[in-house]
């Protein structure tokens, strides 16, 4: 089938060299969609119980779940965004890769196994284990949906931009259609495939992404005789920026004003903190630990994920520097000022711009990027719809008096609602910066979710008020600091356009009083503080439930078992 | 101690069970298990977070150090970043080995005992 499409595309390329990659991209992407829909259909026949729908029957193997975690985690922002950042600013793009990877140690050492042993379907299962169910589940459900929606918006806006750039679509109507199409596919994956179908979509995508990145990495390295130093030298020389291999081109800029330098460097530290602490608070990542039979397999799957994600980020480093070495900076920024298309452009250059091979490479990498977006949005939609159905509907509204079938039905309805809402929000949000939305999701996850997760797993004195104050306090401070940050108003004014680099681009509107773009440095400690103060000011302390939770979390006794099919 | 494990109707959250959780929590076996876990994960978390923050702080405030060339165009900053990858891989492997050898046997024994008692 692939060979057939290749010939077809080669013919198309010969006929119309300018649009050939676009036709091929569409064909390759259609093949990916057809394969994943087939998988979804197969999975839908096995979706019988709530454990199948929410946790894929808990029967995935360690390496399978490791690949799926990779497929869930390596978003378009990390592939296109990091490669683009490195291609334009060199060394500074590296921080994202490092933070995103080191973050997995928090998940491995502190969260994955204990969560698998105590929870069932959602993050709130663990948070509410020894607390009053309704207030804690409501809070956890709200923060799950908020984090997932921000992340979803980032991916959908990214999909719109990517399609516009790679397929040459410029009309706003067509871009909106693309976003709606992504939303529709996402709903189909989740509603019919549930966790099982979504997991397989993520596995297929992870293999495609790793393969695509590996081909580019070896190609780039081969051009420089597998000598890292000469690749770096070529990147620096071709970029025309002497400080390209040193920190400081993008983050923590040295400035004439001492205050501005201080703020810029603190902002960098703040981003670093949010990256490393955000991962273990992302609901769509946390629910992946429930898809394996036991905590040992959860540990194995995180180790697989660390290997896959680590190798992938090392490859984006080579791809980013390769783009800087082989492309003109102006060609990158002309297509997208943030460098988001540097990786596909590099693919084209490697194959030879204007040649058939170049067109094929561009089409393949563009199709991989679309596949990446689809797999990530499916995971996000599943996380938020399972929280709405299992936490908010089954346990808060119906107070636990529901059947399995009813919970799954509500989960499916929620997936449709989440899909519709995210499309409706993504269409007007297209002017927002993708990296900003992702960083925001990480900062909120680290501030709102992580403090309560860690304290509920390790602190015997933790209780209902601690959990709700921690979640609302962390969520609230992250959001408030963002609204009053330069992200929303009062950003740096561009001298040529006269517009501020903020959501509100009119420089006359400036209500910002919080100087950092990344709220993490302040909102993460605040999240912990709210959680601790809340717990200490409440007398509630269920020692029996704490004993049950601690013993179960460490031993795995009475943990949810894998389904037998 | 060999006790058959696995129940057909797995208990739901909040289900009443006959397990004396508080008694187990106070038992010397459980305390050993908890110590085995915490004595690894807490110091290791402190160590990798400190190591990571050191990297972030150096990238922001110790640029002279980060820009020292080690060989060719490879700087200390780049090596420091690559070492973060290496340390992440090493810690993940060390933890897996530690957990397999020291933690899992204790946890398995206690789990079998608990699940055996409540059958």
Give the total of beta strands of chain A.
Answer: 0
Oligomer: heterodimer
Main sheet record of chain B: 2 strands, antiparallel
Distance between the termini of chain A: 32 Å
Categorize the overall geometry of chain A.
globular
What is the average per-residue confidence, as pLDDT of chain A, rounded to a whole number? Answer: 89
Please state the average pLDDT score of chain B. 85
Biggest sheet layout of chain A: none
Most extensive interface, chain pair and sizes: A-B, 60 and 58 residues
Overall geometry of chain B comes to elongated
| Number of discrete helical segments of chain A | 21
Secondary structure: helix percent of chain A: over 70%
Indicate the structural class of chain A: mainly alpha
Radius of gyration of chain A: 23 Å
Q: What does it look like?
A:
The complex is a heterodimer of chains A (565) and B (119). Chain A has a domain at 3-245 and 280-430: Amino acid/polyamine transporter I (Up-down Bundle). Chain A contains 21 helices and no strands. Chain A has helices spanning 2-15, 20-45, 50-55, 62-73, 76-89, 94-118, 123-127, 133-167, 172-223, 228-239, 258-278, 283-286, 295-326, 329-335, 342-351, 356-397, 404-426, 434-458, 464-483, 520-536, 543-555. With 119 residues, chain B is mainly α. Chain B has 4 helices and 2 strands; from the N terminus they run αααββα. The two termini of chain B are 15 Å apart. The longest helix of chain B has 42 residues, at 76-117. Mean pLDDT of chain B is 85; it is low at 1-16. Chain B has a two-stranded antiparallel sheet with strand order 1-2. The interface between A and B is large, with 60 and 58 residues.
């Amino acid at each position: 089938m692939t060979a057939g499409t290749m010939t077809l595309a080669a013919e198309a390329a010969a006929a119309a060299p300018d649009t050939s990659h676009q036709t091929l991209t569409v064909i390759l992407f259609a093949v990916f969609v057809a394969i994943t829909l087939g998988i979804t259909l197969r999975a839908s026949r096995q979706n019988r119980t709530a454990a199948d729908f929410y946790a894929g029957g808990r029967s995935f193997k360690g390496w399978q779940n490791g690949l799926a975690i990779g497929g869930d985690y390596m978003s378009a922002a990390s592939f296109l965004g990091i490669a683009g950042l490195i291609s334009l600013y060199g060394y500074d793009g590296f921080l994202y890769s490092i933070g995103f990877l080191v973050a997995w140690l928090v998940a491995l050492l502190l969260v994955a196994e204990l969560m698998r042993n105590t929870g069932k379907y959602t993050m709130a299962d663990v948070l509410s284990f020894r607390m009053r169910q309704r207030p804690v589940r409501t809070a956890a459900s709200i923060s799950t949906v908020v984090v997932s929606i921000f992340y979803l918006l980032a991916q959908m806006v990214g999909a719109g931009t990517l399609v516009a750039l790679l397929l040459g679509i410029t009309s706003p109507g067509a871009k909106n259609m693309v976003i709606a199409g992504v939303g529709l596919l996402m709903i189909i994956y989740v509603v019919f495939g549930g966790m099982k179908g979504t997991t397989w979509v993520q596995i297929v995508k992870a293999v495609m992404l790793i393969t695509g990145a590996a081909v580019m990495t070896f190609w780039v390295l081969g051009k420089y005789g597998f000598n890292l130093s000469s690749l770096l030298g070529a990147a620096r020389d071709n970029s025309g920026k002497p400080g390209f291999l040193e920190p400081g081109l993008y983050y923590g800029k040295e400035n004439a004003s001492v205050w501005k330098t201080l703020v810029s460097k603190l902002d960098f530290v703040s981003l670093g903190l949010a990256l490393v602490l955000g991962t273990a608070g992302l609901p769509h990542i946390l629910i992946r630990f429930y898809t394996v039979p036991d905590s040992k397999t959860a540990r194995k799957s995180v180790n697989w994920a660390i290997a896959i994600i680590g190798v992938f980020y090392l490859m984006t480093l080579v791809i980013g520097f390769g783009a800087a070495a082989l492309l003109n900076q102006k060609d990158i920024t002309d297509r997208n000022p943030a460098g988001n298309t540097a990786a596909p452009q590099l693919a084209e250059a490697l194959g030879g711009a204007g040649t058939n091979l170049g067109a094929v490479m561009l089409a393949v990498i563009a199709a991989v990027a679309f596949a990446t977006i689809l797999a990530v949005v499916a995971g996000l939609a599943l996380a938020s719809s399972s929280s709405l159905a299992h936490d908010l509907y089954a346990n808060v509204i119906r107070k636990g008096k529901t059947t399995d079938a009813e919970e799954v039905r509500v989960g499916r309805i929620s997936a449709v609602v989440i899909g519709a809402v995210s499309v409706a929000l993504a269409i007007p949000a297209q002017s927002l910066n993708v990296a900003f939305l992702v960083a925001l999701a990480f900062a909120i996850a680290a501030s709102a979710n992580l403090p309560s997760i860690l304290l509920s797993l390790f602190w015997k004195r933790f209780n209902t008020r601690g959990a709700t104050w921690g979640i609302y306090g962390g969520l609230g401070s992250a959001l408030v600091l963002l609204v009053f940050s330069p992200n929303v108003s009062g950003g740096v004014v561009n001298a040529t356009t006269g517009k501020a680099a903020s959501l509100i681009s009119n420089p006359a509107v400036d209500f910002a009083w919080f100087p950092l773009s990344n709220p993490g440095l302040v909102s993460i400690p605040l999240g912990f503080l709210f959680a601790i103060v809340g717990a200490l000011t409440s007398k509630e302390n269920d020692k029996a439930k704490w004993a049950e939770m601690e013993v179960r979390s460490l031993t795995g006794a009475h943990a949810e078992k894998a389904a037998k099919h | 101690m060999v006790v058959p494990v696995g129940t057909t109707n797995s208990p739901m959250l909040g289900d009443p069970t006959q397990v004396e959780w508080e008694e187990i929590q106070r038992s010397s076996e459980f305390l050993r298990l908890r110590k085995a876990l915490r004595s690894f994960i807490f110091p290791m978390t402190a160590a990798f977070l400190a190591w990571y923050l050191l990297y972030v702080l150096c990238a922001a405030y110790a640029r002279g150090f980060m820009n020292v060339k080690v060989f060719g165009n490879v700087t200390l900053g780049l090596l420091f970043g690559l070492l973060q990858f290496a340390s992440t891989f090493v810690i993940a492997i060390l933890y897996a080995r530690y957990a397999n050898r020291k933690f899992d046997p204790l946890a398995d024994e206690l789990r079998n005992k608990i699940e055996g008692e409540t059958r």
